Here is the input.
Amino acid sequence: MNKLDFYLFHLMPYPFIPPGEEIESTWVTLPNSHYDPKVGHRLYNEYLEQLVAGERFGYDGLCVNEHHQNAYGTMPSPDVMAAYLTAKTERIPIGIIGNALPLHRNPVRVAEEIAMLDVISGGRIISGFVRGTGMEYHSYASNPSYSRERFWEAHDLIVKAWTQPGPFDWEGKHFRLSYVNPWPRPLQQPHPPIWLPGTGSFETIEKAAQLRYPFMMVFAPQWFTKASYDMYRRSAEKHGYEASPKQLAAAIPTYVAETEEQAHREAKPHIMWLFQNGLKIPPYHWFPPGYMSKSSFANMLGAKVKHNMKDHWELTYEELLEERYIIVGCAETVIERLSELTDELGAGIVLGAGGHIGSMPHWLVMKNIQLMAEQVIPQFRDADGKPGWARHEPLGAATVTEHAATVAAPARRPVARLDGDGLVETQLAYIPEVGANGRQAEAAPGRRTPGGPS
Amino acid sequence: MAEPATVPRPRSYYTQPERLDVRGVDVAYRRKGSGEPALYLHGAGFTRMWLPFHEALSQSVDLVCPEHPGYGETAMPEWLDSFEDLVIHYAELLDTLGLDRVHLIGYSLGGWIAAELATFYPERLRTLTLITPAGLRVEGKPIANLFAMTPEQHWTTVFNDLTNLPSVLPDYESLDEIVHLYGEATTIARIAWERRYNLALERRLGRVLCPALVVAAENDRLIPNAHAERYAELLPHARLETIPETGHALVVEQPERVATAIADFV
Here is the structure.
């Protein structure tokens, strides 16, 4: 059996909306009067509970993402969600997949927030970068015709902010900053892993492969995902290396239950909510002008006509299963399908296998998470069943004793001028015999020297 | 894969354009008529066509109809970013054609470009004609969102009288045509996605001292009539003329009447 990493992925939809056929779009224009914050309070907390549970159930990571002004995914700030998960978990990696770079005025904000989370969490952050969907460009009044340019300029700025000493100035086409100098810097070196979840424009795939960033397709039929991943592998070869399965993630909503019939009975209505309603999006919201290059747009239209591709909300449940948008069944079926799919795609990571789908109630989600963890995930693991994060030490000391034993003292100590005593070391100043002569504190006993004990 | 090598042709009214090199921009344009020169700046549609409106207008002036960079058969240059880029481009186009002073006519998006051009180069205008122009903010009367419509919604918003619509309706069966229209929409997105009006025009239009005509539709459901009215207030020597029984597509709905209104003015 091929080895797979399982990431629990949430969209956090707000499913209490009118049927897709009655609304123009689940995005951009669906009146937010449909959103009841009291219902939202319960939903958010249940959704977060589901993600947090992923650690104890042995998933390899937890994923959140960014969408705006819609009922499909109510996480306008994924970093806020990641902060919550960081506090509520101990060891498991947290994937923000991702921050929608072109939508935001100052990319340094993203560099700062990711670094904050990385430092707090002990280096557990995966930093996905996305352009955001076409819908976001309507909702955020960001110019779609500059989307790709802004994305890559923001990416370059953030990576430089993480890896080059500040302050430096940035004189780009879309961003200009006199002082790029973010505090904190990330804990993971040279920087947190970057993933590029995409909808598969050729330009994105090519660049992702070149930079060796893990790539993934979302809500696409298997043949289309396969074509994209083949392109990634070819681009990797062109850049002189062989792409590893850990660079390709399959995002596939998966539901497992005790029997085949039970699985379909339980999952079907919620999956159909997701596709019929969550993805009810008119083309002018999907593809604002310039969001795709003319050639990408032409290729997409051509493929759509050639393969007679339906829009998401028109797909039947049977088509979703046949075209491998989703996997549903008893454990044996799910194992077989997941194995086939990831083999075919050459993918070593799966997202959304187990967890919340569409309009699922909490108890059903927890059941899916549990059965996946008990009956499916171990099949794709080493004999001990451990998740990846349990195999290595976390960054950053988990305890003060560990910190004291292993982390070098800071290069400088905090000092201040107190009561005419001259410069004193503030952390020792309350001790008269030391504080009166702060400069001697350099040699004070009981402080760890770099390198720790022998 | 590369862009289609050739630009698809509309089903009606296509004529082969002439080409003009405007400092590196290979401009497609059409020119007909005699008399005083007039530069016509088209709107966000009806490209690649010599329409009955153009023909009627060319009876009274030497009509020059270029296609904007990123429209029709003029390719979109990488550097195009703003209305100022287009203003400079059109000043250079007039230089290239050896035209010192012209009657400037702009329709819809082209009306906005014409208004900008007029504020930067007022001395080059004999007259200014704006037909249902964009470019201003009129509080409480926003321009309808062209970027969030199905083709059907688009055309039924733009046309009040649908009689002449079939003759100019794009061929939505043609993928090449759809991709071409996506490209044209990208051009307007590039310059006007965030900035759907220019507040500076309110002050700058006072510089345009030539005679001006603002042509309004009877009931424009894309750019509310209040915009044409506001232009007529802001331009020092402007007259407002409304063409009865028309919507935003008045140049296609009532080509003769619009052409006559302009001919009587210039």
Notes: The CA atoms of residues 160 and 247 of chain B lie 5 Å apart. The radius of gyration of chain B is 17 Å.
